[in-house]
């Protein structure tokens, strides 16, 4: 009997999962769907024979009908600082990168293990400072492929991930349905994966999607890739700003806070002589004070290995002195601001550096929401 495609089984949230199982096996009691759901997501079963509280006949029927997927890890690169970059092979032979960042924090009993996951193969947004942009978009990841990055890294490492950030390859809000479905599964209290306060979604700023996301009731953390305090500069760095000007995006972030009550984060990469002046700091402080927020100031990690051209080739990291001065100006203006530590630079796994060297694949066209 032909097995169903992966998205038809693995990767459904609790409600969808119950509907599917009851439709396929109407003779089964409703609670069986919850048992299977918890085996797959909470206990991470890798074969139906592991579902030991199910009748053997149901185990066999599931095995005949469906498959439990996995991601094949084809390469692991480890940094001197302990960061690990995983290259995962997908069913269609495309690849994605996922990064595990261990962090020792003062005052915490155990170190953080933050996983940076991807939501797309490539990205359509063409941000000038990001290596992934050079790949163009190949396709969206399925819900299963998003979840399996977390599952496979935890299995290979033998340790649970403590924090999850959707800051890998792709724009999460352009894979909205699969993003939301994955988050519902990950933050479901009965799967015992991660609490909402330990999950962050980063977006380049799609106002309609941000407002919809606020109404989903997920209440995870939201970060905006800002990187410039004016429309003119932000459009040069991030062409999506032409479609969604800064004012519209910031209004959507204000609505996110109003609906969820959750403070927001602004991510700001500092470039030498471009967005690191005192006047830039003053404009950024004005933005940050609109709603309770924090600013993550991020050192620029060059992407020379992608052979950038034009404006992208001119970007340079701000000096350590400039970074310190910028942070001081923000804090002096009443803004909570931190320097986000760089990890994995030596393996091209730092912020903005994810790209698949040597992969030349036909890009996919995707419509950016109006």
| Total domain units | 2
CATH superfamily of the largest domain: Aldolase class I
CATH topology of the largest domain: TIM Barrel
Order of adjacent strands in the largest pleated sheet: 1-2-3-4-7-8-9-10-11-12
Name the beta content range.
15-25%
Describe this protein's structure.
The chain is elongated and about 70 Å long. 33% of the residues lie in helices and 17% in strands. The longest helix is centred in the middle third of the chain and has 15 residues, at 143-157. The protein has 370 residues and is α/β, with parallel strands linked by helices. It has a ten-stranded mixed β-sheet with strand order 1-2-3-4-7-8-9-10-11-12. The chain folds into two domains: 6-65, Orthogonal Bundle (DNA polymerase, domain 1), CATH 1.10.150; 74-347, Alpha-Beta Barrel (TIM Barrel), CATH 3.20.20. It has helices at residues 14-24, 30-41, 56-65, 143-157, 176-186, 207-214, 231-237, 240-243, 246-260, 278-288, 311-314, 320-332, and strands at residues 72-78, 84-89, 95-103, 112-116, 120-121, 139-140, 163-166, 199-203, 221-225, 264-270, 293-299, 336-339. Helix 4 packs across helix 5 (176-186), helix 6 runs parallel beside helix 9 and helix 10 crosses helix 12. The chain has twelve helices and twelve strands.
